[in-house]
Design goal:
Layout (H helix, E strand, L loop, with lengths): L8 E4 L6 H6 L13 H11 L3 E8 L2 E15 L2 E14 L8 H15 L4 E6 L7 H6 L3 E7 L2 E7 L5
Parallel strand pairs: 4-5
Antiparallel strand pairs: 1-2, 2-3, 3-4, 5-7, 6-7
Length: 162
């Protein structure tokens, strides 16, 4: 099954030609407390180097979102062998929500992780009724019982989702 709900959806790297549009991307105002702005994500991508995989989500020529995956990142300082990969950030434009772009983003990261030989995909989210927890659970993520800061940690077995 293709993960592209519409054939015009694609991921692209952030380039000098697209960075301003990426920085202007905004989620719904009530969601701003649930996700870091793109500018912070791009700064972290620079700082984390190869462990970060930032991508823009386009529908045709229209920028509709931003995602950043984490790749084989040490998860806990006290256990260097605990390395994880998953979805680090997901920002869908306020006017692009409810159109399958978030699902496309998650499935695209899952495809990339599978390509890299990863079997589990992690994600964290802000708890609460207006947070994205229900969205992630609908896609098959289950909570691990852990927290990262104050965020809930979820995991998805990649053989479950296509």
């Amino acid at each position: 099954m293709s993960n592209v709900p519409h054939p015009s959806l694609r991921l692209e790297q952030v380039t000098p030609a697209t960075v301003d549009a990426a920085l202007d991307l905004r989620v719904h105002p009530h969601q701003e407390r649930n996700v870091a702005p793109v500018v912070r994500s791009l700064a972290e991508a620079y700082a984390f180097g190869e462990a970060a995989w930032p991508r823009l989500i386009f529908d045709g020529e229209r920028l509709v979102g931003f995602l950043m995956a984490l790749l084989d990142l040490p998860w806990r300082d006290e256990d260097a062998s605990d390395r994880r990969s998953g979805l680090w950030r997901l920002n869908i434009s306020a006017d692009g929500q409810g159109r399958g772009y978030g699902r496309f983003a998650v499935l695209s990261v899952a495809d990339e992780l599978r390509r890299r030989g990863v079997s589990q995909m992690y994600v964290t989210w802000e708890p609460g009724d207006d947070g994205p927890g229900a969205f992630y659970r609908r896609l098959g993520f289950r909570t691990t019982g852990e927290t990262s800061g104050r965020q809930v940690v979820g995991v998805l077995d990649l053989q479950q989702i296509r």
